[in-house]
Amino acid sequence: MTNFNRSRKITIIGGRGRMGQFFTQQLSTAGHQVSTLGNQDWDRASQLLGEAELVIVSVPIERTVAVIERAAKYLLPTTALADITSIKAQPVQAMLANHAGAVMGLHPMFGPSVKSFAGQKVVICSGRNDEIFQWLLDFIADRGGELISCTPEEHDRIMVTIQATRHFSRFCCGAFLSAENTDIDRSLLMSTPSYRQEIEIVNRLFAQNPALCVDIMLATEERCEAIARLAQTYSRLAELILQKDRSALIREFEIAQSFLTQENLASTKQKEYAIAATQL
Q1: 13 has which bridge partners?
Q2: What is the mean pLDDT of residues 6-10?
Q3: pLDDT band at 262 (very low <50, low <70, confident <90, very high)
Q4: How far apart are CA 102 and CA 85, in angstroms?
Q5: Which domains does the chain have, with CATH numbers?
Q6: Which of 48, 144, 275, 279 matches a 20 to 30 Å C-alpha distance to 14?
Q7: Gap between the Cα atoms of 68 and 66, Å rounded
Q8: Cβ atoms 114, 22 nearer than 8 A
């Protein structure tokens, strides 16, 4: 294991944002010298970036590549460069193309409201000279984080399902509840455990910054196309409901049921918990 306790000079671009603040707090509390670079700080970029051992890019998705290209001009070849946005192929490609030093893509699979890395997943996408980042990975793991490695392309493909379509589905649910003027508090008084769980998940989505949620859905063409297919599925099944086509609905259910039964989606304990939570 590397010496992750040795104090290092780190600059976080976007370090005053919510996720940037989380990384700033975690690293500075451990004794690292953490600086932040915001929109108003580029006149100090030579100092903030040129003297850093590690630079982390933590900015909105639509700005990530442009910020990487701008920041790379100030970096030494010995500086390690990482990003923590929720897409990986484009940022990793931009870092490799614009910086000669060590490069890695990271995606924290949690929101900035958490207090530590304990019990949280962080996806790692290799770029160049991974060993330079080993101290950072050891630091995250030592604090209870779970590290999952994959290629940037696999990450983005899986995130279409994990993030984009789930955000859209919950977005639709919240928009529907609003349009129906649903009395949420009253409904919770007589709800099932699964309904309470779903409302909590939807509430967490709408507690986020609206721009962040929308950017996650619009981040790539693949995400937009998948969301469109999901919407078509909703429409197709809703049409069967309107037609009261019981047989067709049962067939659709059985097809999905067969697929999900065959897939190893969770451990036995997780399956038992999910079943218990959805009992009517």
Answers
A1: 37, 57
A2: 95
A3: confident
A4: 17
A5: 9-150 (3.40.50.720), 155-277 (1.10.3660.10)
A6: 144
A7: 5
A8: yes
Q: Residue ranges of the alpha helices (H) in the chain?
A: 18-29, 45-50, 61-72, 89-98, 134-142, 152-159, 166-179, 184-189, 193-206, 210-218, 221-242, 246-262, 268-277
Q: Tell me the two tokens of residue 42.
A: 């580029």
> Distance between CA atoms of 72 and 63, rounded to whole angstroms?
14
The overall longest dimension of the chain from CA atoms, in Å, is: 68
Q: What is the C-alpha to C-alpha distance for residues 12 and 199, in angstroms, rounded to an integer?
A: 35
Taking the C-alpha atoms of residue 211 and residue 207, their distance in angstroms, rounded to an integer, is 12
Q: Which run of H or of E encompasses 103?
A: strand 103-108
Q: What is the pLDDT of residues 200-253, one digit of tens each?
A: 999 999 998 899 899 999 999 999 999 999 999 999 999 999 999 999 999 999
Mean pLDDT, rounded, of the chain: 92
Kindly report, residue by residue over 234-246, the tens digit of the pLDDT: 999 999 999 999 9
